[in-house]
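May I ask you to review the protein record following this short note?
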Amino acid sequence: MILWTIVPVEWVLEEDGPSPPLMDVAVGALRLVLEAGADGSARIHRVLSTDPADYLRPELQPGAPWSPGPWPGAGWPQGG
């Protein structure tokens, strides 16, 4: 592969640094990949679901804080 760019090759091949620790959480048929924060909090990193409606829920958007309490809406189990 040839990469034509004006950016120095050192910038292109530069590593981003260590990635944050990730963990999987099952919430019913839905799976979430959470990113652990330094202060013990967690944020949603990725949503894994076969239901397209899960990707439209604002509380499940990547970057949203994760709280394992009761979910709003009918039929949502507690995460954890």
Remarks:
- The chain has a mean pLDDT of 82.
- Residues 17-60 form one domain.
- The longest helix spans residues 9-12.
- The two ends are 44 Å apart (CA to CA).
